[in-house]
Design brief:
single chain; 362 residues; alpha+beta; Jelly Rolls; 6-stranded antiparallel sheet
Length: 362
Amino acid sequence: MKKKDEKFRDAIFIIVDEESCPFYSVGEEIKVESYGLTMSSYKPGCLYLAKQISSIVASKESFGGISKLSSRKTRFDCGGCEGIIHFQYKRDKDFSTMQMKLLEEADQKRRKKHLEKYFGVMRKISLFNSLEDDALADFISLLEFKAIPFGKMVVKKGAPGTNFFIILEGHVEVKADDGHKLADLEKEEMFGAMSLLSAEPFPHSILCVKTTRLALLSIKNFKEILKKYPVLQMFLFKLLVDRAQAMTLKSGKIASGMTGELSEISAVDLFQLINTSRKTGTVDLFIDQGRGMVFFKEGEIVYARYLKFRSKQAVHELLGIKNGHFSYTKGLPDILEKEEPIGGFMGLIMEGLQKIDENQES
């Protein structure tokens, strides 16, 4: 016997409540039409929700017809994953419950207040230089704002990424496991994007060292905004690469392909980092006066050159350089593979620093 085709009724539902839902927000509509289910633009489809909606619009018990809805269940939930939403049937375009009207009015007031207060502040932040005014207003409307007091932990190491943070006022520190400072983040700087993009927990704790006002963008709104404005995604990826390299250097690690600025980590600290890590590789230094190169084998310097200087003299000259760009790559040229160190590393560095001091005094 041929199975009768399941009938799905057209309907519109509206979300009236949500608890940690990774995708949807209060006030958004769910539309079922011609066997299709649609959500707001840029929203992903949730299988939990699709399954529940399918069951509702096919069931005579829960969805027996417009004329009978007053005596039947009209409020539903999605079944839940790590979060949950509650939604109810929306009878027509002009219909909404008193609760929804109040929510909408409150949300409009909140958005207007935030826009008036923070538009000028956000416009100054480099991340938003590429956004038109309408797009920036769209972004601000999705933000929440919080003041975090001095001494309070904003995020603990290992916590899941739930928000993207923008510092509007104040100062936070990124802390290593032993409590020492890895980085300072101040007004107009951001954090949290790495955890949201990678789905990895926070690698470090972040502490307020003075009362700090933050703008927070939830994970679902963060993903929506990046899809809507790809230029922000490009900016954030560059920011994350630069910051990750700086943090890695300060935490005592270095990897092939890493680059940085001598204004952020001195040549002395950079060379000591390679020595301590017993790395074999080449440091390329790009300085206004010219290019320098230092070659390491298992942490010891086997050769160096800078301008007319070679070996020890080149190392000593480079130790005094304060500004420039460097890159580190793994491995040595074949010609240097069998070279012996040009001197004990610590003795070489101390001798160079002493000469710098003598030159400054003379």
